[in-house]
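Q: What would this chain look like folded?
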Amino acid sequence: MSGPAPVDVAVVGAELAGLQCARELVGAGLDVAVLEAAEAVGGRVRSERVDGFTVDRGFQLLNPAYPAVRRWVDTTALGLQPLPAGVAARLDRGTVRVADPRREPRLLPATLRGALPLLPGAPAAARWGRPLLTRDHRGLVRRAAATRADRSLHAALDAHGVRGDLRRVLDAFLAGVVLDDSGETSDHFALLLTRAFLDGTPSLPREGMQALPDQLARGLGARLRLGRGVHALHHDDDGARLETDDGPLRARVVVVATSGPAASCLVGDTTLPTTRTRGVVTHWWAVPPGQVSPGPGLLHVDARSRPTGPLVNTAVVSAAAPSYAPAGRHLVQASALWRHDGPAPDETTMRRHAAELLGAGGSGWETVARHEVRDALPAQPAPLAHRQEQVLGPSLVVCGDHRDTASLQGALVSGHRAAAAARRLVGAR
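A: My prediction, written as structure tokens:
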């Protein structure tokens, strides 16, 4: 190669997958450059401070039970603040609270009362969740596949006879997790997520979700180049040439670690078809004392036969994560699906629905932030297509949650797989 010596690997994008990939490559002794167009790491996993409040870019949670999180993340250093392991569901007959009695004994009386209207659907739900009897995350998909072909979650719940109030609670809760209320999400993927919820309590880091990518980025030093976008990518017999904000950069191998749509634009959608994505709108409010009962910080969902608003969930976040709000203040989040073929739900409609679900007055709520995230998660329809091919050429690797599962687990695993692939390609050169 002519000009400056090439780096071994150029990683385009400092989202979770790219950071995990880069840290493993650096640990293996390779010369690495990480190029990120934004001024901070994290991609979709970002946080900001506004008037003493911490708000994340979309309501996100970190499940410490994910195997990849246990393996590669120092969760103790993050100072995790768990949300209660349960849900408050608005039914046609009123609100019920149901929580895991193993982890939320304080909510046991409310859980016993709330479980009564859900009991008729319990046997059918148990049949649907039979593969959950294995605690092995990898074995879960194999077990499910051995007993039933993957299909949409809607079809699977129908086939097992899950109906009534419990069905609506499951639908409402999972819609907020996968950002899909159509029911087309893979049944096997829904089982994987349910297993993770049974094993661990989703939490918020003390300094916000931004603390996770910040931790992964430590040790990269000058290899991490923020504010350095990549506009074009060219491959030849010697590797690749990247056109960046700082001019051209040569690399023996390139790892594209951006979101699915961005990766398709850079690589070319004939090489990497565009990934379908789900959008979300999250609104954050500062709520005066007395306007809302903070309670334990349960996630509230609308599981009525006719929901009265667009929200998939809402919560008094500061009740579970006090570091997210100044002392004596409440921070409320509400999230709604953002469909690509229509406008985002407006603040007034979201606030009215959130206040109703929380049993609060909606006056005096002050907007702290609003995030409209068009490509929040890759769609995960049936059949589940995780562990997709990441090596797309002799000098090209692509990684991200769109190449594995639509989760923090999938992003980290994809970055790990990309690092192994990049090492092999560098070695071949």
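The CA atoms of residues 388 and 403 lie 5 Å apart.
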